[in-house]
Amino acid sequence: MEQYKNIMPAPSLDQKLAILSDAARYDASCASSATTRRDSRDGKGLGSAGGSGICHAYAPDGRCISLLKILMTNFCIYDCAYCINRVSSNTPRARFSVDEVVSLTIEFYRRNYIEGLFLSSGIIRSPDATMADMVRIARRLREEENFRGYIHLKTIPDAAPELIEQAGLYADRLSINVELPQDQSVARLAPEKNPATIRKAMGEVKDLRAAAKDRSHRGKRPPRFAPAGQSTQMIVGADEATDAVILRQSTRLYGNYGLKRVYYSAFSPIPDASRMLPLVTPPLVREHRLYQADWLLRFYGFGVDEITAARPDGNLDLAIDPKLAWALAHRGQFPVDVARAPREMLLRVPGFGTKSVDRILTARPHRTLRHDDLARIGANMKSARPFIILPDWRPGQLTDSADLRARFAPPPEQLSLF
Q1: How confident is the model over 4-60, as pLDDT tens digits?
Q2: How far, CA to CA in Å, does 368 sit from each of 161, 337, 339, 375, 393?
Q3: Rounded Cα gap, residues 293 and 317, in angstroms
Q4: Cα separation of 164 and 204, whole Å?
Q5: Structure pTM?
Q6: Which segments of 219-370 does DSSP mark as H helices, in order?
Q7: Sheet strands side by side (includes 68-71)
Q8: Is the previous residue joined to 410 through a cis bond, with omega within 30 degrees of 0?
């Protein structure tokens, strides 16, 4: 970091905020879902953290909830090829002090700009030194400022276990980045990082969370540890991993570490990243399809092989959503009779979500459901019509029509030559 001191003036606080909030946009996993409520309705603290997502996410009632999302610093001693903040990158640098992050969080909250803090960081001096500063920030907010809003810390896996343990006592959620879907890609593109170390740290967080739920023999509850759980972030598109490989890795991560969420971060090429492979798919569209597929794996009973079998290359169809792609590839199972189909099959109908399926099953014993009834309970009938039978609706030949996919896929677009 000394090399930068001699070539640029110290930035102002406003300049630091501009640099480090912009740098933080590459960090995902900002939801506070399922956190234990901390609130200040008793008049003894500041802020509150509820069960809704934050960082410009939307609560169930439509409110937009936000947090202060910054890096403590974008200086970094590592040279990960996919990261704009790598040591070899020519990018403006800045660093917040512990006092500055604490002050910004409290002042932004007092002005009603935020409801919490999402804090990540580049690695300065050493993983332990960086993690210690992040823990200091969280401790100061909780113990000195009595801040009860949401805190999410991006944990550094190479840091000492006792630092990670301390972080979980003050943060609502911890996240540890697995970086890339394949170990060999990490070795090639982020050689200073070790996938085994990352997984070990994730396992320790899982164990600490489990231990925090156990009462002592006297019934005393231990201190809460990361009550909103842990998540991870995976960069997609920086290596040759197919969507099938990515989703299998995500399934293992959910099962092995009890994660609340795997976040997919679309890679966009960075100038001078000579170790990058050519970008072959639109990054944000691919990211969106992976989130949809992830949802199907977790809540709809699909398997990875089912979702990715529609294409021979193991990738998702970018033009249509994964459930529709599966339905089009398995037309022999449709149309289904909404009045008789089991829950497992209803969940596979395009346009039916988990809530609409639950409402269908609740209503079926009491009444005959018709087309308008399904529309009222929230089903997307435009997507569902070719795949269902109702007393007042039959798709006829629509289910097997050759142009059914074209009805849902976006129209072809003439690309500009200039």
Answers
A1: 444 556 788 888 888 888 888 777 755 444 444 555 555 555 555 543 333 554 333
A2: 58, 12, 7, 14, 13
A3: 11
A4: 9
A5: 0.85
A6: 243-257, 283-299, 304-308, 322-329, 343-346, 354-363
A7: 68-71, 116-120, 150-154, 173-175, 230-236, 261-266
A8: no
Q: Is 377 helix (H, G, I), strand (E, B) or coil?
A: coil
Q: Which pair of tokens denotes residue 191?
A: 């050689």
Residue 214 DSSP SS3: coil
CB 266 within 8 Å of CB 236: yes
The residues with which 191 forms a beta bridge, in sequence order, are none
Which tokens in the block code for residue 255?
């099962």
What span, in angstroms and rounded, lies between the C-alpha atoms of 333 and 251?
26
Q: Please report which residue ranges of 212-303 form alpha helices under DSSP H.
A: 243-257, 283-299
Lookup: tokens for 279: 């970008």
Report whether 178 contacts 68 (CB < 8 A).
Answer: no
In this predicted model, what pLDDT tens digit does every residue of 245-287 receive, in sequence order? 999 999 999 999 999 999 999 887 654 444 454 544 567 889 9
d(CA 7, CA 11): 12
* Beta strand extents in 268-353 (DSSP E only): 336-337
Beta strands per DSSP E along 54-139? 57-58, 64-65, 68-71, 116-120
Handedness of CA 265, 266, 271, 273 (dihedral sign): positive
Strands 116-120 and 68-71 turn out to be: parallel
Bridge partner list, 405? none
Classified as helix, coil or strand, 178 is: coil
Distances (CA, A) of 235 to 23, 108, 203, 317: 16, 30, 20, 19
SS3 277: coil
Angle 261-408-309 from CA coordinates, rounded to 5°: 55
C-beta contacts of 38-46 below 8 A and 24+ residues apart: 38/148, 38/149, 38/150, 38/172, 39/148, 40/146, 40/148, 44/146, 45/146, 45/147, 45/148, 46/106, 46/109, 46/110, 46/145, 46/146, 46/147, 46/148, 46/149
pLDDT per residue over 130-148, tens digit each?
999 999 999 999 999 999 8
Q: CA-to-CA distance for 119 and 69, rounded, in angstroms?
A: 6
In the block, which residue shows the tokens 């969940």? 347
